[in-house]
Write a structure and sequence with these properties.
Pfam families: Cullin_binding
Structural class: mainly alpha
Radius of gyration: 24 Å
Distance between the termini: 68 Å
Strand order of the largest sheet: 1-2
CATH topology of the largest domain: Recoverin, domain 1
Protein name: Defective in cullin neddylation protein
Helix content: 55-70%
Main location: nucleus
Function: Neddylation of cullins play an essential role in the regulation of SCF-type complexes activity.
Order of helices and strands: HHHHEHHEHHHHEHHEHH
Strand content: under 5%
InterPro entries: DCN-prot, DCN1-like_PONY, PONY_dom
Largest sheet: 2 strands, antiparallel
Shape: elongated
Number of helices: 14
Length: about 240
């Protein structure tokens, strides 16, 4: 909230504040009817949404929800911080940095899904998870995750973070994920760049488990060419041992 608005709110008494808020509600309603308590709680309120945000911030940084506030928020809504649904929520907010929500990001995301209370967002968790089953939405979430999770001082994502995010997004859906993760463990790669990141998703979606449709002359990043070679060699060694 801008400083001038905070000062104005401080100077206004409770009655003035109530009149101001009620007037605004009347002006935005068709029919200018009076709002009952049930209507007020069932409809989305930006004022209530901001007040909820403030429960997770400190007086020193009232417009930034940090790691401690994030932990409390996750506890309140009953979701582990590393749950993929938190990534989807961050995507809805277009949050810039993992572990932080600004007031602007919070309002952007929660206004879109019309949530201003714990109960309301709990009722939307299944909807947020369902977005992962939509190919277009998932691709957008996957691409968003790269810039969201990487260290902002680096252009690439460190391998530890990349593997954790790949596990979160592809671990349950890509049949070759465990092999790819093992390949990364034994590879020379210490970081993943954005081109590699995006192509991993396309590879997981288009290449058969037996690699039968893999084109050695395709335009895949070298990392994925090396993964295919590594996988074929591993299968060959397994066959010889058996």
């Amino acid at each position: 909230m801008p400083r001038t608005k905070r000062r104005l709110a401080a100077e206004m008494g409770p009655e003035d504040d109530d009149r101001h808020f009620s007037k605004r509600l009347r002006n935005t309603s068709s029919g200018a009817r009076r709002f009952s308590k049930s209507e007020d709680s069932s409809s989305f309120s930006q004022k209530r949404c901001i007040a909820w945000f403030r429960e997770y911030t400190s007086p020193d940084e009232p417009e930034l929800l940090g790691p401690e506030g994030m932990e409390k928020f996750c506890e309140d809504i009953g979701v582990e911080p590393e749950n993929v649904v938190m990534l989807v929520l961050a995507w809805k907010m277009n949050a810039r940095q993992m572990g932080f929500f600004t007031l602007q990001e919070w309002l952007r995301g929660l206004t879109e899904i019309q949530c201003d209370t714990i109960l309301k967002i709990q009722s939307k968790l299944e909807y947020l998870r369902s977005l992962l089953n939509d190919q277009t939405a998932f691709k957008s979430i996957y691409r968003y995750a790269y810039d969201f999770a990487r260290d902002k001082d680096q252009r690439s994502m460190d391998m530890e973070t990349a593997k954790a995010m790949l596990q979160l997004l592809l671990g349950k859906h890509w049949s070759l994920f465990s092999q790819f993760s093992s390949f990364l463990d034994h590879s020379k790669y210490k970081v993943i760049n954005k081109d590699q990141w995006c192509n991993i998703l396309e590879f997981s979606r288009t290449i058969n488990v037996d690699l039968s449709n893999y084109d050695v002359d395709g335009a895949w990043p070298v990392m994925l060419d090396e993964f295919v070679e590594w996988l074929k060699l591993s299968k060959s060694n397994d066959y010889r041992r058996s």
